[in-house]
Amino acid sequence: MGAPGPATRLLPPLVLALAGVARGTFTVVAWPRVAVVAFGGSVTVNCSRSACPGDNATLGLETPLPATPGAGGAPLAKLPAPERVPVEPRPCHLLRPAAVTPRPTPAPASSSTLPERVELEPVPALAVGDSRNLTCHVLEVAPVRNLTVTLRRGAETLRTESFGDAEGSASVAVSHLLTVTRGDHGQDVTCHAELSLRPHGPLFARAAVPVTLSVFALPEPPQLQAPAILEAGTVANASCRITGAFPAGDIRVTAALDQEPLNVTATVAGDTVTASTELSPRSPGPRELSCTAAVATVARTARRQLHVYHLPEIPASGCPGNRTWVRGTREALSCRATGNPAPTVVCGRDGVAVASAEPEPVTRSRAGTYLCNATNALGTRSRRVTVRVECEWHRGRRRGAAGSPSVAAEVTGRPLCPPKMSPRCPRRGVRHGGSGWRGSGGSWSVAPTGTPGPARAVPATVAPATVAPTTAAPTTAGSPRGRVVTRADGGRYVCRATNRHGVAVRSVVVTVEYQPSLGERGCPERRRWLEGTPAELGCAATGNPPPRVTCAKLGDGRDPANATELGGSQDPPQATPNVTRAHAGTYQCRATNAHGSAVRNVTVAVEYGPAGVTLRVLPSANVTRGSGFTVDCGAEGVPAPTYTWALPPAPNLRLAADNRSVTVTGATTANRGVYTCTASNRHGRRAGERRGAGGR
Q1: Residues 106, 19 within the same domain
Q2: Do residue 279 and residue 353 come from a single domain?
Q3: How many of the other CB atoms lie within 10 Å of CB of 225?
Q4: What pLDDT sits at residue 630?
Q5: What's the pLDDT at 403?
Q6: Residue 53: its pLDDT value, please?
Q7: What pLDDT score does 311 carry?
Q8: Residues 632 and 680 in one domain
Q9: Burial of 421 by CB count in 10 Å (0-12 exposed, 13-18 middle, 19+ buried)?
Q10: Which of 323, 357, 390 is the C-terminal boundary of a domain?
């Protein structure tokens, strides 16, 4: 007998022993010719021979495996297959007389084990361009040389591997290095293991549970847009834009103001995700706005520092509007204001600032009306403060010489410092701001008349009726002294002259006239107009008599002193034109009355919504496959517009930093389509489009 063939390498050959004496030739046959049995199973082997001369030959069966002989010692045995233990083959031998020539038939047997498990290693979410080994494990299979393992992505075969002449039972692993693209997202990876025992046995197949690929892209951090300066208590909009995101619908966007979550509304357009939110900070100070975009295991965050301000406020508790001081004490004209940045407070009277930090002696000259301004970077708030100076109370009467009128020292009901008046006491008087009490109507000293006549000039008392002067410098008839008239001196006065025979009373109305003034409150120096709305450049001036105000644009060849356009108090009023862009510029407003004029320049900025959206394809609208081109978008508008795009979905698009252009590199047919650019500002939006040819 020769050596066993390849099919008999897992189980040792059966050794057939023939004993006896025979003449001639006979054949020994084993059945089945090839036995296939699973590990741990058993197979029945039948051994027979052909006719033997003399019929005196004995047929036997030898094997190193445990065997159960057939009934009556017949050449029939049941052989168990070893459990995953390969056995080296041994040569067969036959015991026979020299005259006998047997023709034995080998009875090879092989054992097999189906794969216990076929498993794919889990694959985490992968970024576009990342590489990852796809590994399939096949556990405990035999014979390994009959195993074929196939890895597939969808219907595409990635790798097929077999194991050649490998012996026995083993666990195997098959790997394939995959570099993922966007097209791999959602694809199933499968692994199939086939154990083929053909032609002597069946074909066994098992598959692993599929693994679904998750592919993402988040190449750029979010683009965060928000105003750098906000006023506390107001509402402003902020947006967060993520470009190149994939899959765009899976992007999670969150926003926070100083780690306090904000409500976010997200929209998706192609591979761009735009999230918007409202900002309404309640307290001033530096704040941090953050926007985070996350997909799979990756997150990118953009941050922006915001400065929340508060316009100045002058509360009544920190700056009382009416104050009464006692002459001879020390007082400070202090005002406390709130705001962020912290405002500075300056108080003044008649355009002259006064010290307000340190207490100073109280004199009659400090009585009056002051204007206190609190100013920071956002603006100014004002508050008027009226100071009254009290004199000491004097009760009783002092008598003069015999026959002379009494010297009045009585209090008329209010602790105000009474002025002294002269005999010239007209019922009505006009005083000009800045002039002395002695001007335009004489001094205000009083000498009473009567019988007996006074021996000398005697001062009289003056009690205020409806409006009293707050700084009354006393004078006497013998030595009148003048002082500067202020607007607070206007009002009704009661003049009382007294001697021992009675009292004379006269009511005097004082009107104070003064030249015009134009201030920020009534005539702001900076205006913003919206195109198409009525052009009204109103400026309110102070002055007595009420001034006439006219405004004209500088540089148009007109004399501002004679202008009557865009505002003022001309009578009858002219029809108001609508605002155009030509109205932008600097205007000079002039307030005039009988005592002079005041001039103030006002700068007008005209705002309008986006207009004239144009798209250009550079360097040329004729695009060939593989070339590059740029679509540039431009528009007019004040404030300057921002730009958004609606683009054909393609991976080779890149937006400029200011979003005004989109660049295509390596043009393909995917770049064909309509490129739409939308320009927006707070007054509206306007879109333009251009059809792209893509690669030809």
Answers
A1: yes
A2: no
A3: 17
A4: 93
A5: 38
A6: 61
A7: 82
A8: yes
A9: buried
A10: 390
CA–CA distance, 588 with 525 (Å, rounded to integer): 10
Q: Is residue 504 part of a domain?
A: no
What does the block give as tokens for 114? 């189906």
Domain count, the chain: 6
Residue 640: CA count within 13 A, CB half-sphere? 4
Q: Please give the structure tokens belonging to residue 528.
A: 């913003």
Omega before 247 cis (within 30°)?
Answer: yes
Q: Name the stretches of the chain with pLDDT < 50.
A: 1-22, 81-107, 109, 393-423, 436-480, 561-562, 564-565, 569-572
Same domain for 303 and 326, yes or no, is no
**What is the domain extent for residue 547?**
518-606
The answer to whether position 448 is within a domain reads no
User: How far apart, in whole angstroms, are the C-alpha atoms of residue 320 and residue 349?
Assistant: 16
248 — phi, psi (to 5°)? -60, -35
- pLDDT score, position 431: 57
Q: Check whether residue 27 and residue 62 sit in a common domain.
A: yes
Give the integer Cα–Cα distance in Å for 668 and 695.
4
Strand ranges (DSSP E) for 403-466? 428-432, 461-464
List, in order, residues 6 or more apart from 534 with CB less than 8 Å away: 576, 577, 578, 579
Query: What's the pLDDT score for residue 433?
Result: 59
SS in 3 state form for 310-373? EEEECCCCCCCCEEEEECCCEECCCCCCEEECCCEEEEEECCEEECCCCCEECCHHHCEEEEEE
Q: Of 533, 535, 534, 538, nearest to 550 (Cα)?
A: 538
**How open is the CA angle 7-11-13, to the nearest 5 degrees?**
80
Whether residue 333 contacts residue 320, with contact meaning beta carbons closer than 8 Å, is answered with no
CATH code of the domain containing 185 = 2.60.40.10
What pLDDT does residue 9 have? 36
Asked if 529 and 446 count as a contact pair (C-beta separation under 8 A), the reply is no
37 assigned to some structural domain: yes
Note whether residue 601 is domain-resident: yes
